[in-house]
Amino acid sequence: MARFVPVTDPADVRLADYRDLRDVQLRKSLEAEHGLFIAEGDKVVRRALEAGFAPRSFLLAERWLEGLDDVLGPSDAPCFVVSEKLAEEVTGFHVHRGALASMQRRPLPTVDEVLDGARAVLVLEDVVDHTNVGAIFRSGAAMGFDAVLLSPRCADPFYRRAVKVGMGAVFSTPWTRLEEWYDALPDLSARGFTTVALTLAPDSTPIEEAVAGPDRVALVLGSEGPGLSQRWQDAADRRAIIPMREGIDSLNVAAATAVACYLTSRALKG
């Protein structure tokens, strides 16, 4: 049974997992050190628990207790019950959805494990914005993509903002980081994937044409500003573009991913 623990002091050391959630640099070091991530909102908390992640603790305003009673009941993790004002003091922002949980991370799987049985994969190079990473995971999950591979410098998919924007898609989508990212695309090609790089390169073909035909596709997307590195553009089997009206050359990487995932999923089903 969950242990309900009323807390009235914002400096209480038991709330350390939830402190200063908007301080990205602080959270990176704290979450890495303790192997945790924060789930925000009742739906995301539920999805984390349903995916089997172990809770370290919960932080809830009193009015949210009843709505999460079914998931809190089986847990033996402490549930810190606080006022909404105190939650804001601790976290650094107004917790609109009233529920937070500190969850234990798991070791990342290997590339072999992530790609086992996969047909459609997203490969991200240096996408550093957490909101974009979360949105990309959500689009990939919605369109039936099987896995996500990240270069070492990509933003953390388990950072609170990424998890929230992705509505917990990171919990159900196999993913890992590419330690050998330099030759990652040739390796994917050797595994039977056709790598399709989204780029404005002059020889890029419309995305519908680029994803037509292969049985296994790896969509490759680059960072928000410069896009894909020249090495990854050159290493890809195909280069693709989303055709647009004159005067507009590109979409935000998250929006481009949604379009590309939709067209790829249709091609693979066909």
Note down, in words, how this protein is organized.
- The chain has 270 residues and is of the alpha/beta class.
- The protein has two domains: 3-104, 60s Ribosomal Protein L30, Chain: A (2-Layer Sandwich), CATH 3.30.1330.30; 111-269, SPOUT methyltransferase, trefoil knot domain (Alpha/beta knot), CATH 3.40.1280.
- Helix content is 35%, strand content 20%.
- The chain is built from twelve helices and twelve strands.
- The protein has helices at residues 24-34, 42-50, 69-72, 84-91, 111-115, 130-142, 160-165, 169-172, 184-190, 207-210, 230-235, 253-269; strands at 3-6, 36-40, 55-61, 78-82, 99-104, 120-124, 147-150, 175-177, 194-198, 205-206, 217-221, 238-241.
- The strands form two sheets. Strands 8-7-6-11-9-12-10 form a seven-stranded parallel β-sheet. A five-stranded mixed β-sheet has the order 1-4-3-5-2.
- Helix 6 links the parallel strand 6 (120-124) and strand 7 (147-150).
- Helix 6 (130-142) runs parallel beside helix 12 (253-269).
- The longest helix has 17 residues, at 253-269.
- The chain is elongated.
